[in-house]
Automatic annotation (TrEMBL):
Its EC number is 5.1.1.7. The active site is at C79 (proton donor), C79, C211 (proton acceptor). Homodimer. Pfam families: DAP_epimerase. This is Diaminopimelate epimerase. Catalyzes the stereoinversion of LL-2,6-diaminopimelate (L,L-DAP) to meso-diaminopimelate (meso-DAP), a precursor of L-lysine and an essential component of the bacterial peptidoglycan. One of its GO terms (molecular function) is diaminopimelate epimerase activity. Belongs to the diaminopimelate epimerase family.
Amino acid sequence: MTYPFLKGHGTENDFVLLPDHDGSIHGDLSAERVRALCDRRAGIGADGVLRVVRSENPDPAVEWFMDYRNSDGSISEMCGNGVRAFARHLLDEGLVDTTAPIHVDTRAGVKVVTQTEDGLLTVDMGEPKVFGQSEISVGAETWTALHVDMGNPHAVLFVDDLADAGDLLTPPVHDERVYPHGVNVEFVVEKGKRHVGMRVHERGSGETRSCGTGACAVAITAMLADDAPRGTTYRVDLPGGRLDITWTADNHILMTGPAVVVAKGETDL
Ligand SMILES: N[C@@H](CCC[C@H](N)C(=O)O)C(=O)O
């Protein structure tokens, strides 16, 4: 039996989207099927899967739930690039009022997405949590990283050169007591005033070309290091593109960037 899929990305963090509005197609979406869809040789190929299902949130404004899975089949609370790609799909297909903010339910709460005049999408990512520091290692190299929670866990560390992170083919080593459920690790360089560059090793997906929640965690860490006033916007360059992150006076993180759907079809994977 075949079922519909779409392929999209946000700053080249790519996703297979599975429309499953009433949950009747993939209610029991298995880790095995997610891995098959995300396989870049035998499948469609992606960093993760976004199942598009109606939300059970009692607020009538919150119509859609983003059920996010990493490419290894694991579940994560949140995906920043994913929520933009998800909103782009809802807009493209007329599944939401295109003139109003879009409320997307996630395991990390409701995220509100708005369109900018230049065709980008801004997501109110909610309030971040900033914890303490711990050590992250790659091979013989160890750095001190800041623990930032964007609904999902991040360890952010500064390096002299993004190549210092190595090939990132295996996950960086973290402290299990700090991150009992694993962690996304961001390596950051300063590029200028309010401007940083990063690479990321994502929990459950390996090195990806972008991570939206990771870019938020990176901007927060850089703003704290710079003692930047609230309301400041930082530019974060990733291998797959650029995201602009603002930490508002009322302690919300706004992330602005592109998202596109590039293909759709049917599969029996
Ligand atoms: N690429 C995403 C984050 C996806 C989830 C992450 N790998 C995790 O396990 O927490 C983003 O854009 O935020």
